[in-house]
Amino acid sequence: MMEDTPSKEEITRVLKVLEALKQASHDLQTHPGPNSAESNSPALKALLELETESDTILSKDPLLSTLSEHLASLKSLFDTLQRSCGHGLRSFLTRRVSTQSISRVAGSIESEIQAWIDRESIDRLMKGLKDPLQIEEGELVGLLSQFEDRVLQGFNRELQDLVLKSKIFCLLERISCDPSCSRKVREQCAFVVSALIRFNKDVFVGQVLMGRLIHGVVSMASWKSMKVLSSLIKSIKSPLVDEIESNGEIPKIISFLDYKDLHLRVVTMDCILEIGYFGRKEAIEAMLREALIKKLVELQRSNLGGDLIDIGMFDDEKERGKGETRFLENHPFASCVARFAVQLEVGEGLRQRERRAFKQEILKTVRNACVSNAEAATIVAEVLWGSSP
Asked: What is the annotated signal peptide range for this record (predicted)?
């Protein structure tokens, strides 16, 4: 006797069948002509394969029982379309109506299949997240990555309902903050959260701001976690920077500039620039207290630094932009002091008088941190040239 719950292998086989039928249904919406009903068409082959599977697994699923009804309607429409091969007005009208109906039913089939796939994917992912130590790391990372790709396809109300009912966000946050889980799994959980914010910011931002996710992301101390943090700051803006500052995470973020991992330092620099753009007075003060400007001067002085002011030799603005991009690819910390100062100048978090005060503080710190008058003059000129008066 067959078990009530389909095995993993059976679910995998069903998923392959449904994916093939979904693609065929999508094609039918675009080309619902008579040729689509030929016996050797991919749509009909997928249909026959699905009918075979429906006797075992699919017939037990209430959602797929609705799909079976649509498939029966589609077969009936195919039969009608094949019989209307004459040249008279009646045959023409029959073909026209059948073609439109095929397109509509194919759309319903595609939606039903996607809903089933989403439900199964979330169910499998939930089982893995509830007990992450009992599943292979690679398999769980793969499930998370697949779910991230699905979410990034854009807003879908049915998918959002599934996500909210499953309470998957809480599990993603818990694992992101759990040091006993592997870093790869924690990082991928954080990427999924970032994708959900882009999926529907209004629904999921509150859970990020009220939860422990930010601490978990920063505690990973990896370039991937900092990439997630930068993405979250871009999406949530000043409220998230406020949360980062109030939770005391800024010193930890600034400390990543001292790590040996170059990729981490580069992504941290990007994150610092985002904080500079959206951060309010308290966040900027917290960064400056951690000797940020001195660290940036040292990075600009390194082999990976340099001065973008030299790019001004290009007469054409487009060529100058290309030259700057090429230079930054090989010198990620070039003119990093001025780049940070510009973020404060043009950003959203500061009042005008606060911008002026921070600019003066940056200039003063630069003069004290530089090892020569020439170095100080160059960096000061970049800060003044890069920012508006």
From this structure: none
Given 70, 93, 121, the domain boundary residue is: 121
The full DSSP string for 127-188 is: HHHHSGGGS-HHHHHHHHHHHHHHHTT---HHHHHHHHHHTHHHHHHHHHT-TTS-HHHHHH
Q: How far apart are the first and last CA of the chain?
A: 80
Report yes or no on whether pTM surpasses 0.85: no
Domain that holds residue 61: 1-121
**Which residue shows structure tokens 């700051």?**
233
Question: What angle do the packed helices 352-369 and 292-301 form, to 10 degrees?
Answer: 50
Closest CA to 278 of 344, 330, 333: 344
Encoded amino acid at 8, one letter: K
The enclosing domain of 76 has a CATH number of 1.20.1440
Distance of CA 342 to the CA centre of its chain: 27
- What single string gives the DSSP state of each residue in 347-369? SSS--HHHHHHHHHHHHHHHHHH
Q: Smallest Cα–Cα separation from 162: which of 122, 205, 199?
A: 122
Which of the pair, 118 or 20, is modelled with greater confidence? Answer: 118
63-68 average pLDDT score? 71
Q: Which residue has the higher pLDDT, 21 or 141?
A: 141
Q: For residue range 82-91, what is the model confidence (pLDDT) as tens digits?
A: 665 545 444 5
Q: Is 237 left (phi over 0), alpha (psi -120 to 50) or beta?
A: left
Distance, in Å, from the CA atom of 345 to the CA atom of 277, rounded to the nearest integer, reads 8
